[in-house]
Write a structure and sequence with these properties.
four-stranded antiparallel β-sheet, 591 residues, elongated, mainly beta, five-stranded antiparallel β-sheet
Amino acid sequence: MPDGGVGSCSSITPWCMDGFCMSLPEAPKHRRGAAIGANGRLWLAPVSSNTLATISPASSLEKVVLPSVNQPGQMVGAVSAMTAVSPTDIYACSPFSIVWHYDGAQWSQLPAGWLNGECDVLWAASANDFWSIGLNTLRRKLNGTWTSPAASLPVYAVDGRGPDNVWIGGSHGYLAHWDGTQYQVLIDVSQDSDVPDVRAVALLGPSDIAFGTNRLINGNVMTSAQLGYPAAPEITWGSSDDFWIVTKFNGLTPRALWHFSGGAWTQQTVPAAFDLSATEIIGSATNAVWFLSDHAILHWDGSVLASCATWQPPQPTGRLRGIGASYQELWLHEASTNQLFRSEAGAAFVNVHLGGVEGFDAHSSGVFAVAGTDAPSPGPSGTLPIVERYAGGTSWTSITCPWTPGDFSWLRAAKVIGGNDVWFAGDGGHVYHWDGSACTAVSHPLASTPFRRIEGTGPSDVWFFGDSATLHWNGTSLLRNAQTIPAIDAVAAGTHLLALADPDVREWDGTTWTTISPAGGFVSPRQIWSTSTSDIWVDGVTLNHFDGSSWTTVAVPPQVYAGFGNGGGIWGNGVPGDFVISHRSGILHHQ
């Protein structure tokens, strides 16, 4: 291998596409979707359809859009594999036989037919000698002509040291070799064997091949136990005397990252977000190595394993709120398990409430979570209201609200109007107000109606939304509104209030409710955010924007998953067009 590391990682700026920024794309697996370019630059895929990411230890993550497909109706798919003939001669392919080429300056799409068949793995032995795997079938392209070596079992991995030293791994321990003249199967067992599949092959030296949990050294198969490994490897990369392994999980010992150098093993500490079950190792030298997982990127410069970036996605669905205008403190309510998560300064979301939370709201004066619990037995039946406040530190403070034995006072919603002006509501028509010192019940004419959402523009304009009735607080009394708005979400827009009532958006102008959504409404709307009546955002199967006169559908990068069942909360800092949304790959920021 060549010498020459390129230094430690710098901080990575957010990944941005079409106005949306996210932490990082998902990493590839098994060296299929990554390649090393000039000056140690890493090309990374997949990110989204015909889009790559690139990063060097001295620069931030960048987006590169590949040229669009020229053939009408041809399927593209995200980049599935990459290979580098040299740092200025790199190829990328999609599963649908689309191939792009990088010449050191730019990417271009190669003509149809360059690749014969599907592409899950692509490896170059030289500029005129390519090996590919698609649908577990091996193919070779030599001087422009494709052939198919007769592999007796499905194959998954290929690696080599030039045209006359190529190794192939496959099903049930399958291992084969191409010596430039003939294709020889060295290990071939029955399809029903319990021998593990070889998903990655790594040449540590001309006669030293790591495959699965074993190595083939000078023609002799050696197990990891015979070689004195700390545990059985799952992935191996490096040279014979300086290499890395990710160990297998055996039910007792968790996976770990180990480095062998100078005749000794050293276990490496990795960030909590680094998923060792989905790890990729690729490098250009033993002192220039990249480690990729779904939620982290690390770099080894020969002495330091530096964290380029780590990020942890929130749960896939939930209500998102923040504190302050800089998005430095975000709170997420995960709806399916009723847990509450918190992220500070862009760090991982941490579970700060173990469960049972039905609703919450975040404010600089504190975060309020509500729920209910069965009345203690023996005693009268019913549900006691639960209100808890978080104002920093490590614990929550309980707020006691009045309860009458026999009442079912399960709370579902909270809204902070001001530091000492907080409302709670839920089942059985129960509405409570907290003034900073005491929680009191507020009477109204709908004693049995459940309320699911609270929103307000100020102390004298607070709304309580239920499926069968709507209440309004005018500063003095809590009265029923003539129109029922079954809001699943709501947001204040200046002195107006906007309610998302599937499938429509309703606007309260201080006098009447008006439907302002397009004809037919939206498909499965979930969340609404606004800074004014001319800047309204609705997140559902699509992301929609209202500019005060018309609605438009906003294109969202494919990796956002901003739709029903995948999307999540939406919250902004008060600046038009500036907001964050949660989804299963992280937090995206739109500006």
